[in-house]
Design a protein that fits this description.
Number of domains of chain A: 1
Largest interface: A-B, 26 and 21 residues
Strand order of the largest sheet of chain A: 1-2-3-5-4
CATH topology of chain A: Heat Shock Protein 90
Number of domains of chain B: 1
Helix content of chain B: 25-40%
Number of helices of chain A: 6
Order of helices and strands of chain A: EHHEEHHHEEH
Strand content of chain B: 25-35%
Distance between the termini of chain A: 21 Å
CATH class of chain B: Alpha Beta
Structural class of chain A: alpha+beta
CATH architecture of chain B: 2-Layer Sandwich
CATH class of chain A: Alpha Beta
Distance between the termini of chain B: 31 Å
Oligomer: heterodimer
Number of strands of chain A: 5
Number of helices of chain B: 4
Number of strands of chain B: 6
Largest sheet of chain B: 6 strands, mixed
Helix content of chain A: 40-55%
Chain lengths: ~170, ~130
């Protein structure tokens, strides 16, 4: 059975990120291992901050997202959608394709090289978010894109993380 | 030198850098809205300390190291860049002859925070301790 932890559709602001993280800490199941909880929290922060910083703003509307966090059989899935500038879509999907080819050892190596060269952008990011997500989830980042108009597309990321420690604990008790 | 005293919030860590009291601590959660605005003055403080290193300061701390305690519950990727910079600047104090030590704290179940600390200090020369709490 799939459990819904957070299902949110609405504006995205810095304060809203705080609200969603508070909701995460409140709603997350007590059975999650501390390490998986830390990693899932980290994935959620990076995804929300990416969506907040790189959201395409429609005229006269606040930037918005759709986010669904679920759990099934100790596998957590975070699905997050936001509009992105059409000009930046290609850059984003190329980056995702590049990162998704990395294994867990390579992603750490690339992250450590990138952090030494990173610069903080005008939007406040260091360009390390996707690598951090991949490090935390240890799984490829799934993505879908849907063209909205000539200015923007809808980008949906799905990140999965398996609570290995919980699974190990379960096996030990069998 | 003026000290730094910043109270923790839900998105930024507590920071106490006080040379007179020999306290150098940073602790809590770090994902400030403006990471440059938050970490800029902290990095500048360490650079100012480096510029004020002289024989008197070295002698005062010869048997009394400046211990920088880094104790994060969590930090985002933008903060990570600045925390690495901070570690590098602390190391440069050691390279300039000041008796400096680094203590990297992590929750015992948080192997990622330990691993990050090990990666950040991989090319650092000053003495480092990893402390499980």
């Amino acid at each position: 059975m799939r459990n819904v932890i957070i299902d949110y559709k609405g504006d995205i602001t810095f304060d809203k990120i705080e609200e969603l993280l508070t909701l995460f800490n409140h709603n997350i199941m007590s059975t999650i291992s501390p390490l998986c909880k830390t990693r899932l929290f980290s994935i959620m922060v990076e995804c929300l901050e990416n969506a907040y910083r790189h959201n395409y703003k429609l005229p006269d509307q606040h930037p918005s997202i759709e986010m669904l966090l679920t759990e099934q059989d100790y596998c957590y899935s975070l699905r997050i959608s936001n509009l992105i500038d059409a000009d930046k879509l290609q850059q984003m999907t190329s980056r995702l394709d590049q990162i998704n080819k990395l294994d867990s050892v390579s992603v750490k190596k690339v992250y450590n090289e990138a952090i030494h060269q990173a610069h903080i952008s005008e939007k406040g990011g260091a360009g390390l978010g996707l690598l951090k997500i991949m490090r935390s989830s240890n799984q490829p980042i799934e993505y879908e894109t849907v063209s909205v108009d000539e200015h923007c597309s809808l980008l949906t990321l799905t990140i999965k993380i398996i609570d290995c420690q919980h699974t190990q604990n379960q096996k030990k008790t069998q | 030198m003026k000290s730094i005293n910043i109270q923790a919030t839900s998105t930024s860590p507590a920071v106490t850098f006080n040379l007179a009291k020999n306290i150098f601590e940073i602790s809590g959660c770090s994902r400030p809205e403006d990471v440059v605005e938050f970490y800029g003055p902290i990095i500048d403080w360490i650079i100012e300390l480096k510029q004020s290193i002289n024989d008197k300061l070295k002698a005062e701390h010869a048997n009394n190291p400046l211990i920088f305690k880094i104790n994060y519950d969590y930090f985002n990727s933008a903060s990570a860049k600045y925390i690495l910079d901070m570690v590098m600047h602390i190391n440069s104090l050691f390279k300039d002859g000041l008796n400096v030590k680094l203590e990297w704290y992590y929750k015992k179940e948080d192997e990622d925070m330990l691993e990050t600390g090990q990666e950040f200090t991989d090319i650092v020369n000053c003495p480092i301790s990893f402390v499980a709490i």
